[in-house]
Specification:
The chain is built from two helices and no strands. It has 57 residues and is mainly α.
Length: 57
């Protein structure tokens, strides 16, 4: 079973993609930047979850 960090990280990445896309479509640079930051946060959380999974094995 996947670690909760990996699941939450993937959800944050998806949310970030949506925010970034909405920001690009509307020309809202702040929303676009927030989306990119959320994606980065999700990637880090996903990596932490991957490390936890590898330690379990």
């Amino acid at each position: 079973m996947a670690d909760n960090d990996r699941i939450e990280g993937s959800m944050k990445q998806a949310e970030g993609k949506l925010k970034e896309g909405a920001g690009k479509m509307t020309g809202d640079q702040k929303l676009e930047a927030e989306g990119k930051a959320k994606q980065a946060e999700g990637k880090v959380q996903n990596a932490v979850g991957g490390m936890k999974d590898s330690l379990k094995d």
